Amino acid sequence: MLQDSITDLNVFVIDLTISDSAIRPKVTAILDSEEGLGIDQCAKVSRRLAHRIDEAYGEEASYTIEVTSPGADQPLTDPRQYARHTGRTLKLTLTDGTEKTGTMEAVEAEGVQLAEEVKVKTKKSILPAVLVPFADIKEARVVISFK
Asked: Which residues form the Ribosome maturation factor RimP C-terminal domain (predicted)?
């Protein structure tokens, strides 16, 4: 239902939850896009979602809607989120438990090209970029830098 009403806005659903409150349930939609998500897009989706809920359950239905984008500290959970972070530092936790931190140089259909930073004693070296498949990534976070 939600994805159908937002396709023309070039956004996609990261998470959709509905609280279990019988009095006034809260619908929370976390959305993103390959270019990032602005407040205008969130407002449009909120209006469309409210309209769809009203159509399905009647205008007298009591609910709250929150439409938002993932915060900067939230992990990347959809391969479409990676493209706009090309050139930034990512911290990856892999499915085997290992961690890699480095610059994401490119995004490919099957994964990301990561130039890993490794520390040997007090020196930092950057390895040539290698493909890290999405299937091997348990969690990916953008490293926020205030340089």
From this structure: 76-146
